[in-house]
Structures are given as C-alpha cells and as structure tokens.
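INPUT
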Amino acid sequence: MKRRDTLKILASLPMIGWAQTQNGFAATNDKPAIKKARNLILISADGMGACQWQAPGIIRKSPLSVFGMEHCCLVDTLPLNKINGDAPSHCTALGSGVATNSGFVGLDPNGKPVKNLMEYAKEWGMARGIVSANSLVEGSIVPFVAHVRNRMMVEPITAAYVEDEFDVVLGAGKNYFTHKVTMDAPQTGVACEDDSTANLSPRQDGRNLIDELKQKGYAIEEGMDNIMRSNAKRLFGFSAPMTLPNLMQGRTEDVFVNLTEKALELLGAHSNGFMLMIGDMYVDRASHDGNLDLLCKEALNLDQVVRLALDFAKKDGNTLVVVVGTPEASGMTLTHGNPSEGKVEAKWNEPGMIHTGIMVPCFAQGPGAEHFKGSVCNHELFPILMKALEK
Ligand SMILES: [Zn+2]
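OUTPUT
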C-alpha cells in the first residue's frame, strides 16, 4: 500500500481524523505547503515531564539539546481508563492513533491489534530500526513491535521481533530470545547478577528465536565491540545478555550513543528512507527512585543521543526528529536552588513506580515539525507523524 493510500484510509476514520481542534492541525483536504520527511527518528523519553528535562540543564548551567529544537507541543499521556498512565498504552496511542486501556501493548480498548508506525513503514518499503538503551522488551518500545495485553508477556513480544523483520535491532536481552525469563517486577536498571543461561529453562513455546533470526539471514552480534564492527544489512546486536546497569552502577555513556550511531549508519544507507525508534528508560527509573544525581546523568546521556540524531538530521536535510515523553515518573517538582550556581533541589510527590497524569513535552525538528504545536492527546500525535511522512 502506498503512503497516500494509507493516509486516505486514515483520514476516513472518525477515531483519528486529520482536523485537530486543539492545535489547529490542517484537515486532509487542505494542502499545507510542507516539506515531507524521508526519515523519522522517534525518541521515546520514558517518564520525562518538563522537570526531568530541566533539572540537568540547571546543574550543568546549559540547557539540553531538546530545548534548542524548533517546535514543541504538550502531550496528554492518559490512557482511557486511568489518570496514572504507562508507557505501553501511551506509545500504543501515539504509534497507532488509537487511545487505549492502561497497560495494553499495540491493542485497542477491545483487545484488537492496531497497526503501528513501524508496520506502515514496512508497507512503504522504508528501512526500520529499534535502539533500546536497556533491554528490547521495555514498555516504551514494545508497542512498536508487538500486540499483547501487557508488557510482561515477554515470549510473544520477542517472537514478534522475528515476524516484524526490522532491519536493525540493537539493545540488551538476548536471553529473552532463547530462554524463559520471568519479569515479576519492573526492571530497575540494575544489571542482572547472573547473565548466564545455565539456570534458565527453555522458552515455554519451545522456540529458539536466535536460531530463527539466523535462518532469516540476520547477523547476530553480542557485545559492543562486535556490534560496532558489523556492517550487516540485517542485524540484531545485543549489548548485554539480560539488562544493563545504570550509569552509577557500571554502564558507560558511550553504550547508548554508539548503538544509536551504528543504527543511523546502517539505516542511513537505505535509499527509500528509514524509521528509527529509540527508547531510553533510565531517567524514568531514576525519577521513580527520587535520585536526582542519577536522573541528571541519565538525562544528559539521553541528550547526547538527541544531539546525535539532530546532527544526523542537519546533515541529511530530510529527517524529522521527534522526542516525546511517556507518562511522568513519580511527580517530580523543582523546589529550591540557584540556577546561577548550578544548584537545584527536587521533590517527588509519588515516590515509587507511579506515573502522574501531567502533560509531557514533545519536541520536534525537521520536515513536518511545524505541526507539533499547542496541546494534543497522545493518539493525536499519530496523524501528525503520518502527515510528515506522506510522500
Ligand atoms: Zn516509569
């Protein structure tokens, strides 16, 4: 299906529609004179409201790269049935245009699969890639991969990676593809103590997805050195067997930056454009833990990735970069400090794994970025993204 055909269908859906009342977005029969994006780099900033972006800039006395992006809007992150949002339902909404229930991954409120941006991109012949700062089964990433009731359903989520046939997938968690790994509690960003598979059972579905990926022609690389050396056209690169630690517990800043650089290098070689989804989860966890030092370190690392994307886009000239928060983590506020001294203190209203219902910023730069303005619901971002990619 061609992009324009898809857009015609989308325009006919009353649930989505093109005319947005809140932000004055143009209707489909209008012909706004905008330049179309060949590539999309979509960066998901898990748990990041305004304060999570602002605090690290105060401490280093220089605002983060996102604040230099030309366009910005506020995004309502609420699922249909709760004030306390979550990355899966939020990313389902912005990635498919369908608002859904709390916790749902790529499903509408009735449990039916909804087509996501990556699936449209596949039909359009675009190259597609995923980069995760941590594992490949994180809640902010999986709505672009799978269609399941919740993000703990690791086996169908990893199996969806095999069906989806992305061009480049880089992140941690190879063991999830070969063994039964339970996810009883949200991951903390602390490395799994035992990376070996010696004590793990085979997957319940009996599949070894690494073997299946190899049969499909993928190069499988493990460890950063091997990933960075690869020039494979189809690549799964695992930065760690399970998860990676946060920056205060051993992970280094270059991991996330290098993974992104490699993905851009490989995807940028495709002539028909690409869609790259990049997810960070470490700021979210630092915010849930009320750890301002860690939060700032992680946010600055994410901002390095944003900088990399913006530099690529500037050089390329046809790339839209969008950086969007997922539901804000734990109600962070900035309470005291002195910006001229690089000092800030923060408090959290809801310590623990709670997301608040406040709106979060979405930053955009590149062709089509001018439509990111005003305030929108998460599902209303989808037609704006689609519009920017229309050929
Ligand atoms: Zn969170």
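end of record. The radius of gyration is 20 Å.
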